[in-house]
Write a structure and sequence with these properties.
60s Ribosomal Protein L30, Chain: A, alpha+beta
């Protein structure tokens, strides 16, 4: 069994907080919350929900790939939104990233950091031979 390892990639925002982008343990990757931040500026990419969710999922994909996984092997994704009125936009953007056999999903309406409209996290199954590509 693989030991616990931390995943970090510059292709997703590295925030100055005590949290990892993801942790791999055994054959599972646990991706922390990814928001619609630009990886370089660490600022929201837009004030539009669909732009932010698309960037959040792009950041999530980068973290998952840095951990040796593939987004299509996600087992469960949680999407946090500030406005439930964005639910149909959520489904449209989410479908771009999971066009077939989507993972289990939970959507939670909540308050996020100022300026953020969406955040995502995921649990992803990894093939036995994969591992972080730091």
């Amino acid at each position: 069994m693989r030991a616990r390892s931390i995943v970090e990639t510059p292709d997703a925002p590295v925030m100055p907080i005590p949290a990892s982008q993801a942790v791999v343990f055994g054959s599972t990757l646990y991706a922390g919350g990814q928001a619609g931040f630009d990886p370089v500026t660490r600022m929201p990419v837009s004030d539009r929900f669909d732009d932010q969710l698309r960037q959040a999922l792009t950041n999530l994909r980068a973290v998952v790939e840095a951990g040796g996984g593939r987004l299509e092997n996600a087992l469960k994704v949680t999407v946090y939104v500030t406005r439930i009125e964005d639910y149909s936009s959520l489904n449209a953007v989410y479908g771009e990233f999971f066009p077939a056999e989507p993972p289990a999903r939970k959507v939670i309406q909540c308050q996020l950091l100022p300026g953020l409209l969406a955040e995502v996290d995921a649990i992803v199954g990894l093939p036995p031979e994969s591992g972080p590509t730091q």
